[in-house]
Design brief:
- The protein is an alpha+beta fold.
- The chain contains ten helices and 27 strands.
- The protein has helices at residues 16-24, 28-38, 45-53, 178-186, 239-246, 313-316, 321-332, 417-424, 461-477, 498-507, and strands at 56-62, 68-74, 80-84, 87-90, 109-116, 121-133, 136-147, 154-159, 169-173, 189-196, 206-213, 220-221, 226-231, 249-256, 261-272, 286-299, 304-310, 338-347, 352-359, 372-379, 382-389, 399-404, 431-438, 451-456, 483-489, 512-518, 543-548.
- Strands 9, 10, 11, 12, 13, 14, 15 and 16 form an eight-stranded antiparallel β-sheet that branches. The protein has a seven-stranded antiparallel β-sheet with strand order 2-1-5-6-7-4-3, covered by helices on one side.
- It is elongated, with a radius of gyration of 28 Å.
- The termini are far apart.
- It binds flavin-adenine dinucleotide.
Length: 549
Amino acid sequence: MTEAVEQTPSPSPFHRGEQTVQQRLGVREQMERFGSRVIRDYMPDQHREFYRLLPFIFVGHADKGGWPWASILFNQPGFITSSDAKTLDINALPVTGDPLADALHPGTRLGLLGIELPTRRRNRLAGHIAERADDGIRLTVDQAFGNCPQYIQTRELERVDTAAMPRTRVEDIVELDSRARALIQQSDTFFVASYVDNGSGEASEGADVSHRGGRPGFIRVDNETTLTIPDYLGNNHFNTFGNFIENSRAGLLFLDFENGHLLTLTGTVEIIWDAPEAEHFEGAQRLWKFHVDHGRWINDALPLRWKLDEYSPNTLLSGTWNEAAQLREADAQRNQWSDYAVTKVVEESSVIKSIYLEPRDHPAPKFKPGQFLTVKIPIAGRDTIRTYTVSSAPADAIVRISVKRERASETDLPDGLCSNFIHDQLKVGDVIQAKAPCGAFTFDASEQRPAVLLAGGVGITPMVSMARHALVEGVRTRYIRPITLISSASNRQQRAFFEELNDIAAQSAGSIRSFWALSQVDSDMEPGCGLPPARSDNPAVPTGCLAAG
Ligand SMILES: Cc1cc2nc3c(=O)[nH]c(=O)nc-3n(C[C@H](O)[C@H](O)[C@H](O)COP(=O)(O)OP(=O)(O)OC[C@H]3O[C@@H](n4cnc5c(N)ncnc54)[C@H](O)[C@@H]3O)c2cc1C
């Protein structure tokens, strides 16, 4: 069932289901504006040229029983041509056993995904079959749009001699056999077909096929018929989820990239909008479950092989189900002491040292930038407990704390116990104990509001974590929350993280700006000293030491 949604008068590029999801997730208006600009009822020349270069294309359709399937069509590059902006000719037929073969007649609505794996380029198209020829189909375009390259792993294509290939063998299945479970568990890519036809006849309805990528282990095989799949941040069109809420059936296609087998499944889906399980899965916005109804192994289907080149940067920032389980476990043990080994000690300034900590026999804890670690260090035979803000970002592989040496303000008082021990005695290889990070002074990198962060002395530690996090999130979400960071220190010698923050600012191309105020300035310092060379494309990026009190 769909929720009530205020329909945008036709012709919206999005159908009712897509609009409902966009509204639910707060992107409705912005997507209507964006979609009207980028979703066309014809192919721009760039798309037509792109399709001509492809050696394969993915196709979604629904069979006579209404079950969606995702398929692949392939041939030599040039097998897809376009005589005009509304027409696409595909000179290829489905492989033996592909359910698409029974649907190649005029009027069938198809979703197409052209994807170039070496470059991550992709374009999407919805259309219907205008003509069926002996060796292919002619398609009339209903909707065409470009797609971002997120989560696409690059792969190089190789062809094998078809004469040397065994004959294609089709095996019908109604549940996932051990081979299917193994392929799914190691897959970093699959394709999902969905279908909606509310009878409106609008171009936004019909079939869709979409790419899904993640790290191997991102799909959980719950049992012989059920998969649980995270949904990552995408282009906010919600073509797939929009179809799901109108028609809860989907087709999944898994490619055995190394051996040329296909596993094609069709079944029903269940969306889990607010899954507690997603909380520990890095990058998961929500989850969906796929229940297999039936499917097929199409063995030796393809004379194509793909060699994995590299994972997409977004993929590398996402999680796996194993990691999610470990993080959940770690969360459950938040209040317990865990061992951390000191792997590096770095002098950040004359008074601040960073200690790099690696969890021993437990995963790195999940935390928010700004949170602090409670540590327990045996000093002179007694456990000493102190709190130190984590100065690394949640995505960093290690946990870093940065500690200022506390000297006594008066000569007859003792120096700070823990900070002096850390500075003078803690060394690489030592093991200390810590509880999982906590604290409410945190930073949300997804907020649109610019942030001004003010730091004095060692108070800079949470800000470094926040700035690092904002930059990393920029890679994942393509949005860097604007930050102006103003830090103060007594003098140049005590100024910690100067280079690190300058690097972050430079990489953010102007979204993150770092300013310093020093109370004692050396005679060779000038406002702006230490700035990296001005960037010609953005000369206004201000970083460095700007002011002296
Ligand atoms: C949420 C939070 C986050 C923090 N994050 C950081 C961080 O990122 N980096 C960081 O460096 N610190 C941080 N701190 C501070 C840190 O927890 C410690 O308080 C700091 O390191 C001092 O601990 P110490 O054992 O060295 O000093 P202590 O032995 O606890 O002494 C503290 C001060 O008291 C003085 N003193 C000792 N005995 C006496 C006495 N008898 N009479 C009068 N004065 C005395 C000492 O000279 C010293 O200056 C944070 C604190 C909190 C609460």
